[in-house]
Design the sequence.
């Protein structure tokens, strides 16, 4: 049976990749705030793709209002939606998007 809920916070890229790999086939979707890994991690992008989960990328602040190097997101290439600058409400919006997403 696939599940909706598994919460994981980590500052370690490898931990996040492991969680995504374990979620494949067991979960229905992913909400991820990749923080600084947004702009640097091809490995995290590959893990999101390998998970085959519909994924929503969330940023509490608006990266486009910050330094130019933060304007690019590797993960956006695999996300069904990106929410930026909505504060912590962005997480609720992301869950709502996943709840209404049709594979």
Sequence:
């Amino acid at each position: 049976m696939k599940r909706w809920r598994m919460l994981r916070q980590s500052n370690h890229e490898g931990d996040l990749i492991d969680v995504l790999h374990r979620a494949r086939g067991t979960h229905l979707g992913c909400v991820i705030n990749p923080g600084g890994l947004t702009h640097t991690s091809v490995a995290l992008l590959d893990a999101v793709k390998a998970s085959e989960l519909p994924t929503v990328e969330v940023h509490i602040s608006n990266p486009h209002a910050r330094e130019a190097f933060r304007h690019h997101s590797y993960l956006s290439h695999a996300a069904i939606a990106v929410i930026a600058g909505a504060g912590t409400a962005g997480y609720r919006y992301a869950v709502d998007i996943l709840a209404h997403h049709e594979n």
Summary: The chain has a mean pLDDT of 93. Residues 12 and 37 are 10 Å apart (CA to CA). Helices lie at 13-23, 42-51, 89-99. DSSP finds three helices and three strands in the chain.
